[in-house]
């Protein structure tokens, strides 16, 4: 299993993480937390977050905590969200974010636990090329 993300509009940075054992909800929360920490490190003031996991969107918007194995990750994400001045969280369908999907496929292949890509990997660059008519 892996987590991944990309900061886009123009390529800023991307990342992939190799998560050896996890449930999918926890992996999505790890990805979000990694993305938020990268946004904070880059000192971004406004961020639009698109998540294909509706459950994560719902967890973030619920003011009550959950007492289970993902509570700490949800809490971490909420704390990091508070460190970015302007944040919008949207649900999107998996097919809408092919860049994140391509990075997710890289995670299990990594020899390191976490890699930041300064330039888009080839498989992501191919997705962002303009289509010829």
Task: Walk me through what this model shows.
With 133 residues, the protein is α+β, with helices and mostly antiparallel strands. The protein has one domain: Nucleotidyltransferase, domain 5 (2-Layer Sandwich), CATH 3.30.420.10. The strands form two sheets. Strands 1-2-5 form a three-stranded antiparallel sheet, sandwiched between helices. Strands 3-4 form a two-stranded parallel ribbon. Helix 1 runs parallel beside helix 3 and helix 4 packs antiparallel against helix 5. This is RNase H type-1 domain-containing protein. InterPro entries: RNase_H-like (IPR053151), RNase_H-like_dom_plant (IPR044730), RNaseH-like_sf (IPR012337), RNaseH_domain (IPR002156), RNaseH_sf (IPR036397). It comes from Lithocarpus litseifolius.
């Amino acid at each position: 299993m892996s987590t991944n993300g990309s900061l886009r509009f123009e390529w800023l940075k991307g990342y992939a993480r190799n998560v050896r054992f996890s449930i999918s909800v926890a992996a999505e929360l790890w990805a979000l937390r990694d993305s938020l920490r990268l946004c904070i490190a880059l000192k971004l003031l406004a961020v639009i977050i698109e998540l294909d996991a509706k459950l994560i969107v719902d967890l973030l918007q619920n003011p009550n905590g959950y007492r289970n194995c993902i509570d700490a990750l949800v809490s971490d994400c909420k704390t990091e969200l508070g460190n970015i001045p302007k944040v919008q969280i949207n649900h999107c369908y998996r097919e809408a974010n092919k860049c994140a999907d391509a990075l997710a496929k890289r995670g299990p292949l990594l020899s390191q636990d976490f890699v930041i890509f300064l330039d888009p990997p080839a498989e992501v660059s191919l997705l962002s090329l303009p289509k010829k008519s």
